[in-house]
Design a protein that fits this description.
Elements: H1 4-29, E1 33-38, E2 44-47, H2 49-55, H3 59-62, H4 76-89, E3 91-100, E4 106-117, E5 123-131, H5 133-147, H6 157-174, E6 177-185, H7 188-195, H8 197-214, E7 221-226, E8 229-237, H9 240-252, E9 258-260, E10 263-265, E11 269-276, H10 283-300, E12 305-307
Parallel strand pairs: 11-12
Antiparallel strand pairs: 1-2, 1-5, 3-4, 4-5, 6-8, 6-11, 7-8, 9-10
Helix pairs in contact: 7-8
Length: 312
């Protein structure tokens, strides 16, 4: 005869098996990444398709790995803290980090974990792993769109002012000069009106590419201020001659006609130059004074450059 205790144990075991099977089904079907890790060794015991799809492994390959195999070394301190959190509270996260794919590339994730005991009494950790690659890409795009001109992909006014602020602080520390060249395309409006806005946009793109081609130092910046106005920032120069020499290079780069659509167009630019610290020690003053110098060129003969001369 089967005694009451044996019957009770069997019922309990059956109930545990059903619960375990139900959990594993939910585990495998979950759209959220999930993995089970041996709490002692860090070896993977189980993983669902969501994690496999992100990591690029087959299941057979993945369960041969340990948690440390897919974790970059620079996250070791975070991992040790997660282990400590598990010991103290039985859970950790959510934390942001990166995993290493099978092909060696990395992808960003958020991970949370909880300490559990499986049906056989083994200490395990259930990890909830979300691949946030798309979210991070969207964040990067929003950040890029906020700082770069959508037409030319040059830094916009906001990024220019940020870079200029930092460069001015650097030049003050190093007791160096900084030159700001503000340039405007001569007769852009008639060209834009006669050829159409699409061709006008192509012209702006071509101009931006030629200007960018003149940049040789990482510290220098070409930005689109707006319309047909561009700014070139040259920090850490030693004298005004460095600025005028670069202005001549800008003028020379437009000696060759610019291809717009199916035709070549002759263009020129007018350049105003302001120098830190002589013509201002803040972003706005330097921009305004370079603008004044540029309009002096416009009013005289265009296709030239001029350094700002303060009124005496």
């Amino acid at each position: 005869m089967i005694n009451t205790q044996e019957c009770s144990d069997r019922l309990l075991k059956d109930k545990l098996l059903r619960a375990n099977n139900k959990f594993l089904t939910m585990f495998q079907l979950s759209p959220v990444g999930m993995a089970i890790v041996d709490a002692t060794t860090g070896d993977f015991l189980e993983v669902n398709d969501s994690v496999l799809n992100s990591a690029g492994y087959t299941k057979d390959e993945f369960i041969q790995l340990s948690y440390w195999d897919i974790t970059p070394k620079e996250y070791e301190k975070q991992e040790l803290q997660q282990i400590e959190d598990l010991k103290q509270t039985g859970r950790f996260g959510p934390n942001q980090k990166e995993y290493i794919r099978k092909d060696g590339t990395r992808y960003p994730i958020t991970i949370s974990g909880v300490a559990l005991t499986d049906i056989d009494g083994k200490e395990i950790v259930l990890g909830i792993i979300e691949d946030i690659s798309e979210r991070k890409a969207h964040e990067r795009k929003l950040e890029h769109d906020a700082l770069y001109d959508p037409l030319t992909n040059l830094p916009n006014r906001r990024l220019l002012f940020n870079n200029l602020h930092q460069s001015l602080a650097h030049c003050k520390r190093e007791q160096k000069k900084l030159a700001l060249l503000l340039l405007d395309i001569d007769n852009f409006k008639p060209v834009n009106d006669s050829l159409g806005h699409k061709s006008g946009d192509e012209l702006l793109i071509s101009v931006s590419q030629r200007l960018q081609g003149l940049i040789q130092r990482e510290t220098d910046t070409v930005a689109r201020l707006g319309g047909d106005e561009f700014v070139i920032m040259l920090p850490l120069i030693t004298n005004d001659h460095d600025a005028t020499l670069f202005a001549k290079k800008v003028l020379d780069c437009f000696l060759e006609p610019v291809l717009v659509g199916q035709e070549y167009i002759d263009i020129s630019v007018s350049i105003g130059i302001s120098i830190f610290p002589e013509h201002g020690d803040d972003e706005l003053t330097l921009i305004e004074n370079a603008d004044k110098a540029m309009y002096q060129v416009k009013n005289e003969h265009r296709n030239n450059y001029k350094i700002f001369m303060p009124l005496r």
